[in-house]
Amino acid sequence: MTISHDIFSPIKYELFILDTNLKKMVGAKNPILYAAAEHLFYAGGKRIRPAVVLLIAEATAKKINIKPEHLRLAEITEIIHTASLVHDDVVDECQTRRGVNTVHYKFSTKVAVLAGDFLFAQSSWYLANLNNLEVVKTISKVITDFAEGEIRQGLSHFDTNISVDEYTEKSFYKTASLIAASCKAASILSSTQKNIQNNFYLYGYHLGLAFQIIDDILDIIGYQESLGKPAGSDLKNGNLTSPILFALEEKPELYSFINREFQNKEDTKRSIQIIKNTKGVEKARDLALEHVQASIQALDKQNMSPAISNLQLISHYVANRLN
Predict the structure, then answer these.
(1) What's the CA gap between 292 and 24, in Å, rounded?
(2) Domain ranges of the chain
(3) What is the pLDDT of residues 294-306, one digit of tens each?
């Protein structure tokens, strides 16, 4: 399922400005770093994270126009997300992302690591220049969370003892933290009350978890177009996600493939087929839908507006990525 352009219609102009600014903001003096960053942003993406920030700004702004600080926050959010993808691709040894070669594959691992670091540094600079300490505190914690998520994932490769709760916590660090924090930060910039800020944080928290769980399902059922990277990557790298953990409860024979780290030629293919023949994918989808519903409920106390309605539609889009 693709995102309807109607969802983004209230912020169409702001998203156009965002795309233009992203390419200007990566103006590294080093031509290799610039080429690497430019390569990433020209690859595009759904821009869901900045769109959510801008829709929250639209919903909470006391004036008609979205503040420049909100637009800059949306840009910062996308830069941080992109930086995390560069480092993820290095760790996971992915060759493609969003239909193009990854930075480390096109350039080198060294350039990719430096490009990711450069983007994190750029985001920190622009974040500091928002001159809002609460927003700085809220967003800067995300970079720590990314590191925590990567460490947890790295230490749990092929670990069949990982629980669904531990998987969810890791998913928060790797994906939901940024969305939740940026939702809250957008609300902070609008000078809303604490309870409203917390409600938007919850919206982002649950939306982010749902998004990650659906990504993990797509890794198993093979929709590379929706996933943005080759299907089966998580399984091959030993990242045991929710559909795999649920499938293990039904099919203990999966343990033998995981314990030998899919060394035999057909191990990954056979494992995916076994998982598809269990209720693992269905249970993981149910878990994702619980978070989708929770994200929608977090918006219940907000005054209904086109922006709030579109935030709800984004939640439904996440739920329907498997259709």
Answers:
(1) 35
(2) 9-322
(3) 999 999 988 888 8
